[in-house]
User: What shape does this take?
Amino acid sequence: MDLLAHLIDLETQLHRQEVRADADVLRALIADDFFEFGVSGTVWTRESVIEALKDEAFSPREAKDFRLTLLAEGVALLTYRAHRGATAARPSADSLRSSIWRLHEGRWQMVFHQGTAL
Assistant: This one.
């Protein structure tokens, strides 16, 4: 599998309900030093994301227009467009997304993520 396909697979795992609800899987995908600038303006850490997702009202997600940029050896930027489906608690939304993935001890982990509302 090429790197773009592999990182798309890892990224979109984080969009699935069963992954979002599994703290152990999240800890494998998200680096210890992870942080995120959320669409809401909230700054998230790995543990705050895991805690928030425990009680999440799941919204289905779609992603497209993936683009990969290698930043350095073992460091990659993945960008894409995302759509979050509506729930009773919130309307649907579109955003631009960017994630930085780092190869650490033989596996890729997300170290940074940002969502920008469209």
In short: The beta strands are 30-37, 43-45, 61-72, 75-84, 93-104, 107-117. The two ends are 31 Å apart (CA to CA).
